[in-house]
Structures are given as structure tokens and as C-alpha cells.
Amino acid sequence: MISDITSAHFPQQVGIDAYGNGGFRFAEMSHKGSLLCLPNGMSGWSVSSPAELTLASLQPVLDQADDIDVLLIGLGTDIVAIDPAIRTALRERRIIVEPTQTGGAIRTYNVLLAEERAVAAALIAVENAR
Predict the structure, then answer these.
(1) I need a labelling partner for 48 at 20 to 30 A (CA). Which of 56, 69, 101, 124 fits?
(2) Is 100 contained in some domain?
(3) Does 129 reside within a domain?
(4) Domain containing 67 — which CATH number?
(5) Contacts of 84 (CB under 8 A, 6+ apart)
(6) Which InterPro entries does the record associate with it (predicted)?
């Protein structure tokens, strides 16, 4: 068992089958905690609330910006404004950012991934799926 959720990594980008209870199900596995879905795979993410969303926490996204057209940010159960500096940094790298509730972000992510679009997601885990 991995004690540090941010060290967990699945080496490809796949759709998300379910969410809730503080985590996600994908690729016949269960992941506890928040999740980054990037072109190089799925990784644990230490962010647990929108207040923790920073450029530093999104550095893995910025590192892969050349392979991402759209970033979906699942903010948990509420929609809140994100820091304008984050929007600016992503826009400068030609990434469209869409902040929404985690459930909506997952649904859109799955559709765009199935369409083979250059999509990424930064998903804050929630207890109750909506």
C-alpha cells in the first residue's frame, strides 16, 4: 500500500468510471484522494480544496502544456473563482481552463478523452457523488 497518495501513478490516461467516497475508480483500480489526469498518466494530487489550487500545485500541468488543449478543474462540490494568475499562466501556454464541480469535470473529461482530444483534468476528491 502506498502511504503517499501523490506518489501513486498509472502510466496512461484513461476514463474515470466512478467518483465519491474521497476518491476515484479507473482502470479497474481505486484511488483515494485527489487526482491529476495528464497525457503522461494518472497521478495522485495533494490538493484537497479549491483554496489549495495554486500555480505550484498545477506545475505538472504546466510541464505538459504542449500536449494539453483543455484543462478541466474539478473544484469539489462547489464552483468558486480561481486565481486570475492561474488563468493567465494557462492562457499563455494556450490551455483553455474550465473550472466546475468535480462531477461535471469528470463527465466532460470522459467525453473529450473518448473523442481523443488533448484534455487534462485536475480533480479534487469529494465524499458524495452528484
Answers:
(1) 69
(2) yes
(3) no
(4) 3.40.1230.10
(5) none
(6) MTH938-like_sf, NDUFAF3/AAMDC
24 assigned to some structural domain: yes
Question: Alpha-carbon distance 130 to 123, whole Å?
Answer: 14
CB of 120 within 8 A of CB of 70? Answer: yes
Please tell me the total count of domains within the chain. Answer: 1
In tens, the pLDDT along 49-96 reads: 999 999 999 999 999 999 999 999 999 998 899 999 999 999 999 999
How many CB atoms sit inside 10 A of residue 81's CB? 9
State how far the Cα of 46 lies from the Cα of 34, in Å rounded to an integer.
7
Full domain range(s) for residue 94: 5-123
Q: Where are the beta strands (DSSP E) in 1-130?
A: 9-10, 18-20, 23-26, 29-32, 34-38, 41-45, 70-74, 96-100, 119-123
Q: Is residue 97 part of a domain?
A: yes
